[in-house]
Write a structure and sequence with these properties.
Layout (H helix, E strand, L loop, with lengths): L4 E5 L4 H12 L3 E8 L6 H11 L3 E6 L1 H15 L10 H20 L3 E3 L8 H12 L4 E3 L5 H6 L3 H10 L13 E4 L4 E4 L29 E8 L2 E7 L5 E2 L2 H14 L4 E7 L5 E7 L1 H17 L2 H20 L5 H13 L5 E8 L2 E8 L7 H4 L11 H20 L19
Subunit structure: Homotetramer.
Catalytic activity: L-citrulline + L-aspartate + ATP = 2-(N(omega)-L-arginino)succinate + AMP + diphosphate + H(+)
Keywords: Amino-acid biosynthesis, Arginine biosynthesis, ATP-binding, Ligase, Nucleotide-binding, Urea cycle
Length: about 425
Amino acid sequence: MSKEKVLLAYSGGLDTSCILKWLLEQDYEVICFMADVGQTEDFAAAREKALKIGAADVVVKDMKDFFVEKFVWPAVQMGLIYEDRYLLGTSLARPCISKGLMDVAVQRGCSYISHGATGKGNDQIRFELSCYALNPTIRVIAPWRMETFCQRFQGRSDLLEYAKRSNIPVSATTKAPWSMDANIMHISYESGILEDPSVAAPEELYQLTQSPTRAPDTPTVAEIVFKAGLPVRVTELVSGRTMERPVDILAFLNKAGGEHGVGRIDIVENRYIGLKSRGVYETPGVTVLHCAHRDLEIYCLDREVLRVKKYLADRMADYVYNGYWYAPEAEYVRKCILESQKHVSGKVVVEMFKGHVMVTSRESMHSLYNQELASMEVHGNFSPYSSTGFIEINAVRLREHHRVFGTANMTKHFSRTESDMKLI
C-alpha cells in the first residue's frame, strides 16, 4: 500500500528540517516545496539538505515576478497599509506562496500540506485560509498545533537535540537573537530580544537599509510614472537610468531607498488571533511607491471618492493581513478600489534623503487641480461672494448649539494639572 503524500512548505531551517524528519517517522512520503519570492537563500544547499534527510523530492519555484506583479503591485495600486504603518510585505507573500504550494500539491498528488508556522502567529492563518480557498479538499498537518509534537518539542533546544540524534545538518553559525522573514518587497524581524517593546532594535539587525545618519549627503531623485494606479516606469533623474519591469523598478527603489534609510518602522501591531506583537520592518522601495501613489491619487481623485476609497483600502488591508486575499469580500472590495484608479495616471518626482521620501512635483492629464481656480492672483470662475452664503449655512448648526448649550469650549478638556503630567 502506497504512503500518503505530504507537501511540506520547507525553508531549510531548523524547524522545517525537523518537521520533515518527524513526518517521515509518521510514515508519510514527503515532498518539499520552496518558493523563491526574492529572499536571500541557498536553494541548492537547502535542496541537498532535504534530500539527505529523506525527502522524496524538492520543488523550488521561482515566483519573484508573480509575487511583484500579482500581489505587490496591486497592493500599491490599492494603497494598502495596515494600521497606518505596515505595508504588508509578509502578508502579501503568504497567498502568493500558497498558490505555488497548491499548484504543486495537485501536480504531485499530495493529500496533505504541512508547514512550520507557530500556533500564536498570523502565518498559520494566512497559509491555511489561502490553501482552503484554493483547494477546499486539502488537509493540513500543523505540527506546532499538535499535542504529540508539542509535548515532544518544547522549543529550539529540543529541536537541536533531535537534529543531532537524527543526523540533521545544523548551521554552525550563532543564531541571531531574533527571527527574520525576507522577500523582494521587505524584511521583517520579530521575537527574541524584540519581544520587549522597551528595547530598541540594534543597528546590526537591519539588512535592507542603512541608518539615516550614515546616508549620503546628496539626495536621490527619481521620476515615477503611474498608469491606472500601477507603477509602469521609474527614471533616476541624475543618471537617466530607466526601469520598466516591475521587479527592476522594485530592485532599484529598494537600493536607492535603502541607501537613504527609507522605509524603516518599529511597531507594535494587532495580530488577527487577538494578541499584540512587536515587529521591525524594512520596506524601502514600496514606501517610496506608496508615497508617490498617494500624492498622485489626491491630485487626481474627487474628494469624496478619495475618502470612500481610503475606507475600502483600510478594509482591504485588514483582509490581507488576516489571510483573506482569496475571500469573496476581498475580491469585491478590490474591484471597487480598481474603479477609483482608472484616472490615477501621471508622473511624480520624489526625493529620497536621510530617512525621508518627499514628493517634489507631480503631473497628470487627469488631475482635478485647476490652477486658475486655485490661484490667489485671479478670481477666475470662482465667485468669492458665494463664500459668504457657504459660511452662513455651515454656521447655522453652530449657532443653534450655542443657543441651547453655549460655546463648545474645547480648551477646558485639554487643561492639565501637575499630576496629569507625571508618567504612569
